[in-house]
Write a structure and sequence with these properties.
Elements (H helix, E strand, L loop, with lengths): L2 H6 L6 E2 L1 E3 L3 H17 L5 H14 L1 E3 L2 E5 L3 H23 L5 H25 L1 E3 L2 E5 L3 H8 L4 H10 L6 H28 L1 E3 L2 E5 L3 H28 L5 H6 L2 H24 L1 E3 L2 E5 L3 H17 L5 H14 L1 E5 L17 H8 L7
Antiparallel strand pairs: 1-11, 2-3, 3-4, 4-5, 5-6, 6-7, 7-8, 8-9, 9-10, 10-11
Length: about 375
């Protein structure tokens, strides 16, 4: 090759191989012991179970041949879970027995939610490491509050619930319609907040996805659900004289449509987040497909039901492997740009409250 041709040849960007080496057999042993000891200890062992599970997943996920590390200890997680459990008990009592204090509990929840978001992200970042360097989350309470309560959407719904505004169907429907239309932009703000406040080795992550891109994802998923509803309605009309068998068959399009719409949202939002995120010299490419994810969900569910739950580890491992296999890490530059930094201890209470109330805030 001539010198001129060599100079004009495009530089090839190396890909850092991302692999997951976990096996269903190995994870079954961890899962079964975790389940038994958690039940025998009335949930106390769940903190140790979480650490064992995460350490297994992290240590079997390798980037460029190097495994990730999970550094959290069980006792801080247990304390966080006890705080989360206490707050959940207060919420349950307010909704079932002491309804007069429910407005105060909801307002307290509004005040507490940004703190939960920040501490959860900070804890998960602080105790996740790669090459002995931990991640860091630098979000603060006020920034989280501005992100969560953008345009006052959530406070409006909470206030409406407190004062029973939803007794007016027109008002309640209008409020939820507006919130539904703005939800994709809210999700984009939330993802932007989490990604751009995350750092590793002194390098801050960048995020470039737009609200319109999120809106298209949720619009298509809504159209899928709408089509499934129409199909179910047509099937009910066609089988109106079919008796009990018709009632069993008619909802099937709705179930299938829901699974596919859910898979479509999960696959395409993950692709949006990864494909528009950068961390120092690292670029990411996610190639998840809704059809593949829906097939995975359906086969996992059938396997778990048919085995009375014993195939849960198998479904977890194959889902993680599928997701890892569809994420590619592109290196533009060198890893020397990442420099280690001293980290502070972060409370686990926020992370455990987030998990206890089923808030998935991870990337």
């Amino acid at each position: 090759m001539s010198e001129a041709a060599h100079e004009t040849a495009p530089a090839q960007q190396p890909e850092l191989k991302l692999e997951f080496h976990g096996s269903a057999r190995d994870y079954f042993r961890i899962w079964s012991v975790n389940l038994c000891l958690t039940l025998l200890t009335a949930g106390i062992f769940s903190a140790w179970a979480k650490v064992r599970k995460k350490r297994y997943f992290y240590s079997h996920t390798l980037l460029d041949g190097t495994p990730f590390q999970y550094l959290a200890q069980p006792l801080p997680i247990l304390r966080g879970r006890l705080i989360a459990a206490a707050l959940f008990i207060v919420y349950y009592a307010a909704t079932h027995f002491f309804t007069d204090i429910l407005p105060f509990v909801l307002v307290a929840g509004l005040v507490l939610a940004p703190w939960v978001l920040v501490r959860s992200a900070a804890f998960n970042a602080r105790y996740s490491a790669f090459r002995n360097m931990t991640f860091r989350f630098d979000g603060d309470y006020l920034a989280a509050m501005r992100t969560i309560y953008w345009l006052g959407l959530i406070p409006v719904i909470v206030v409406g619930a407190i004062f029973s505004w939803w007794g007016n169907p027109a008002l309640g429907g209008a409020a939820f319609a507006v919130c539904g239309l703005l939800f994709p932009w809210w999700m984009r703000r939330l993802r932007h907040f989490i990604v751009t406040r995350t750092t590793f080795g002194g390098q801050s992550a960048q995020f470039g996805a737009t609200g319109r891109q999120f809106f298209r994802v949720y619009l298509v998923s809504g159209l899928i659900l709408f089509a499934a509803g129409l199909s179910a309605g047509a099937l009910i009309f066609a089988l109106k004289n079919g008796g009990k068998h018709a009632l069993l068959v008619a909802p099937m399009p709705v179930y299938v449509g829901y699974v596919f719409a859910f898979a479509y949202v999960r696959a395409n939002t993950a692709n949006l987040v990864w494909n528009h995120s950068e961390l120092g010299p690292l670029r990411f490419q996610s190639t998840l497909r809704a059809r593949g994810l829906a097939r995975l969900y359906l086969t996992n569910a059938l396997g778990i039901i048919a085995s009375a739950g014993l195939l849960t580890p198998w479904s977890v491992i194959r889902t993680l492997r599928y997701r890892v296999d569809n994420v590619h890490v592109i290196l533009q530059g060198t890893l020397d740009r990442f420099q280690g930094a001293q980290q502070d201890t972060v409370s686990a209470a926020g992370a455990e409250m987030s998990e206890f109330f089923d808030l998935d805030l991870s990337l």
